[in-house]
Structures are given as C-alpha cells and as structure tokens.
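Sample 3 of the quickstart, ligand DGJ:
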Amino acid sequence: MPKLVAQDGHYALMVDGAPYLMLGAQIHNSSAWPGMMAKVWPTLEAMQVNTMEAPVYWEAMEPSEGKYDFAQADMLVAQAREHSVRLVLLWFGTWKNGSGHYIPEWMKRDEAKYPHVVNEKGRTVDSLSPHAPATLAADKRAFAALMRHLKATDGTRHTVILVQVENETGTYGSMRDYSAAGNTRFEQEVPGAVRTAMKTTKTGTWEAVFGDEADEFFHAWSIARYVDEVAAAGKAEYGLPMYTNAALRDPISPGRQGHWENGAPTDDVLPIWKVGAPSLDLLAPDIYMDDHARYTKVLDLYARPDNALLVPETGSGPAYARYCFAVIGRGGLGFSPFGVDATGAGSDPNAVAGAKSEDRYAQFNYNYEVLRPVDRLIARLNFEGKVKGSAEQPTAHVEELAFGDWTAVVQYGRPQFGNGGQPVGNTPPTGEALVAQMGPAEFLVMAYHARVDFRPKGAVEGASASGPQRQFLKVEEGTYVDGVWKALRIWNGDETDYGLNFRTSPVMLRVTLATY
Ligand code: DGJ
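Result:
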C-alpha cells in the first residue's frame, strides 16, 4: 500500500515498498476526458514523467444523486497503466479554486440545501459554505464511493498512489461565512487544540482569542474540519495517502488579510490545518511565483518537521523549471508543473495552443530525463537526508551545498576555464544543480548551466591555498540501468580541471573525491 513515512525528520512516499520520487505533470482542468487524452500523452511522454496528476470531476461522477458513474476515473487508471505511469487523482469536490463549480448540477440547483458563503454585507459569494451539513454529507458519500471503487479496481496494483482531497479550498471575496450557521459557530469557544497549535494562552471566542485574525483563522479551521471529514470517509474505504493543496499568500509581504484565498492552508494557518485535518498526510503549496526569494521561501515554509514537502502544482513556464532540483533537494517528494498537455485549453486567451511546446518545456524535459533513471535512488537518499539542490538566483551566482566533510560549490555563469574569472550568472537565471551523497567522498551530480566543484573541510583556496585540497579520484559519466551504475566514460582534462561543467544535456556524473 502506498504510504507516507517519516524518519529522523525526513519523509518518503513509499510505493511498492520503497521511497518514490514523483516526477509529475498536471494536465489542464478540462483535459481528463477520453476524447482529450490523445492530446495529453505526447507532451507527458516527451517530458518523461513517471506520474500524471489528473482530476476526477464530481459532476461527472454523480450525475444524479446517489448514482455513481466511475467511467472517468476508470479511464484515467487504464490510460495511466497503458502508459506505465502512476496517477495522482485530484478530487474536484466542494472546492475547486475556492468555488463549487464541480459540484453536480442537482446540487447547484438546490442552493437552499447546499448554500454558498455569505459575506459581511450579506451577499452570496461564489464559494460553498463549510457549515452546511448536506453538502458535507454529499461530498463524504461521493468521495467514499470513489475510494471504495478504487480499492476494488486498483487495490492491489496501486496505479493511484496519492489522492488530493478538494482543490485549492477556501473563499475569495469573503473572510468567512457570515451566514446564521457560520455566525453561531463563530461565537463558540476556540477549541483547545487550536489554541495550543497557535501557541496562545487566551481563551474564549474566536474574536477574543485572535482579534483581527479571527475571521480568517475561523474559516481555516472550519474548512480544515470539513476536508478532514471528507478525507477520513475516503480513507475508511481505502487508505491511500491524501493531501490538499494551497493557493498561497505572498510569503514575504503578505499584505492585508483578505488579499489571498481565505481559509486555505496558507503558511499563517498551517498549524490550524494540521490539528483540524489530521486525516491529511500533508499540506502542499501550489507555487506560481517565479522569483527565487518567494519560491524558496514557500519551500521553507511548507517543508516542516510536521509536514512533508510536495509541490503538486507549479508554473509550467520556463522560469519555473530550475526549481525542480531545489524542491527535491529540500526533501521534496515530488514536483509537478501545471497545465502540461496540448489540448488547446487553459486560462490564457493569448497563448497559441500547442505552439513550440517542445521549446517551452525543454528544461522540464531535461529535468525528468536526467532524473528518471535515478528516481528511486534519489528518493531513498533523500529519505536519508543526503540530497541537496540549488536553483539559480539572479543576484548571487554561487551556492554552497554542505555535506559535512565536503561542500559542493555550484557556480552559475562561470566563464570558460578558470583563470580568476568570476561567475556572472546566466541570463535569464536558468541554472540548477542536484547533488546526492552516495558515500563519505562519493557524490552523484547533475546540473543545468552550472559549474560544480567540491571543497574539503579545512581547505583554503586561491593564491594562499593551504590545508587539504580537492582531488578528483574519478569522475564517471553514466547512468543507472535497473539500479546498476553503467559508466559511459571517465571525465578528465578540460572536463574536470576547472570544475565540472554542465550544459543543457542530461548528464549524470558519479564523482569520487580525495584530498592532497
Ligand atoms: C491552480 C489550480 O489548482 C489549478 O486547478 C488551476 O486552476 C491553476 N491554478 C490555473 O493556473
């Protein structure tokens, strides 16, 4: 059974009994239909993903109340098997980007029974209330039915390895639900678990305990409890690992409350979500901010001792590709650009469908091509805390990755040869590097537009060099085939004299070091 496990502060998603690295891509929202899949697979195959993320639509699965039709989910499982990839199913239920657009038509037609959130001015907004027992009951029933069906059809093969419960829960346009049902609950005492999680000793109502933040925190708690019930109902049928994803707030300057998706598992309310939704294995950030400071800050905020890092959605524009190694190097279970297919759909009316897709995804393709043969190895080493990654940032052109006695030094935009040249960065900053420690002085290295070298502990470099100096015992280019290293050639001379130079081809080096 796939499961999430933790050890010494590191996480692994176990699939078939071993740590799994999810090299994923998420298809567009309206692509998971049988007639679309022929336009999905070529892009995913070119990218060499090992995992597809695809939605299951509640509206399609329960066309009339209590009558389930699993054809769409079955189609995804069958196609994933045919293409030898694993599947992450995304349950588009009560919330999809904060709205209820995927609930079945018979629910949409009965707003009294399945009410929307009401804002402070008494206006109904485009988001369903987390305080509506009928909505929760319907979602739980449907999700449980899906999981029961998956157990029956995939319970031994495990094509589906992970399930996302809802999609970007929360509400735009209101801090919380100000309906009578919402207000009654808002007037109740804050549960002790929430006070402990938020490290406050105050007691009383949400307003008394949290003041200005009360509305947002209450909404987060209400949605977390709701999602927990849905997840628990599904897990009771079939206990796959489950997570929910977050539309983020700005991690550096969040601005005023209400300027993000309220109630979502944003960084400020992660502790509330943790106690509110213990049935979820993790909370995952959808990262659509391509600047280095924000991207890496988000990674640091979500890679917590109590939360495994997974990036189930990120931009698929070229500026995002370089974060793949940084995500994995922070212990990430997986990485997945969003909207990867050639169905001609999406949210941008100005995009030219299918145009030059091979160029657009070139670096994503590189990432997975180099990682695919070592996905299991990297996942295992990551579980042992032995993998580090770097994404180029625009102003500093050197990043050091510390491994105890050795430090990997990654330089971006370093001129040819050595000769005192300083790294100037790539324009635009596309570089990335991933270093995995295989033994005390043995490393696996892959990088894109970067020079990587190693410095032993105690070394002083440059004109007044002293202490131990780095010596390459052996630098082999090669790959793993069925878990066995196959060397293609030994790098030496120009290829190693100034450091290890990586361009844009998927090169993997196994480096053995010593000092002199
Ligand atoms: C985040 C959502 O989770 C996706 O389903 C999709 O709507 C993207 N945003 C749009 O880019």
